[in-house]
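Let's practice the habit of predicting before peeking. Look at the sequence and jot down your guess about where helices and strands might fall. Then scroll down.
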Amino acid sequence: MMNKHYLPLYLFGLLVLCLTITAVNAEIIDDDTPVPPVGALGGPDRVLDAAELEQWIRGRRVFDRDWQLSEGLGTPDLNADSCRSCHQKPVIGAGGGLDVNVTRFGFDNEGAGPFEDLPGGPVASKLRRPDTPGREDADPMADIFEQRQTPSILGLGLIDTISDAEVLSHEDPNDNNGDGCRGTAHMIDIAGVLEVGKFGWKAQVPKLSDFLRDASTGEVGLTLVDDGRGFGAMSDNDNVADPEFSPDDFADMLFYCAHLGYPQRAGNPDPQVAVGEEIFTAIGCAICHIPEMQGSEGPVPLYSDLLVHDIHPDDFRGVGEAGAPVGFFKTPPLWGISGTPPYLHDGRATTIEDAILMHEDEADLVMRAYFALTDSEREALMLFLFDL
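Done guessing? Here is the structure:
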């Protein structure tokens, strides 16, 4: 059970100091920071013209910016003082380790269910402004807490080009083909129109711009101009004029994130990599981790169907929401998986093999096939996964 107490000023200072130390150890971004070449980790997704390159560099600076309380940091809740604070491993724009996990909470009657949202939730912010005495990290009724791992942003611009129709074409909620998987799209109501969620651990966000707006408020506590889609706050109760995040700066950051290239294959020449890829398909991993989906600019090699699935045991306790109940999570893309440990939505799997072994429920048939593999076949499968 998480202790719930007011975060005093000195503790707030210590936590900010920890963020500062993390930033010092991370990649430093300034006007002289080289732009990685196309195809390199953290580089652009294509060759940019002069104007585009300038905007990409401006957007990277915004992503790296350390916000201050005087600029609107916190609403009053926040998890970090910059986007880079969490998205920095192994490069800026990628994911983060367990040290930057956030906590979601709710009430599930000690596991008897059903799951219920509580006031102030579902996120218990890691850092709260010290000028808000009496605020609680989580409602006292909370009896379930679930960690969330920082996802990588690399390649999300390509995922943004995948149409709703493409995602919906892979749904099989009734398992009509008998493969054990019952993937469904998480449909989000946007101003009265249903859109397919593609971002977030529960596919709760439809577009990349929505994802960035939601994180700007939820993680850093910034207000934005209203775009009519319902993501991000337009006002808060601090003394900084709204919007705190200027439209021009946000547009630059969106351009940067939209044009961060996806992690390229390692290119291991070992012939066992191809054998591992065949095994990956043969045992059923590719049912959910589809090697590629069609985007408006061509194939997107993400190894995901962007659908939500239940791979957890029946007694799994976690946070649920409409369209993605307790235990249901989006199939995470596997591109770049070797450089993004730990794994799963909460980071409890420290290795790729750990993550595989934690697949249950919809993955039962796949897991039976996995356990039937010989040691050499498993080694080939791992070689393939580490090549992604």
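How did you do? Confidence is low (pLDDT under 50) at residues 1-26.
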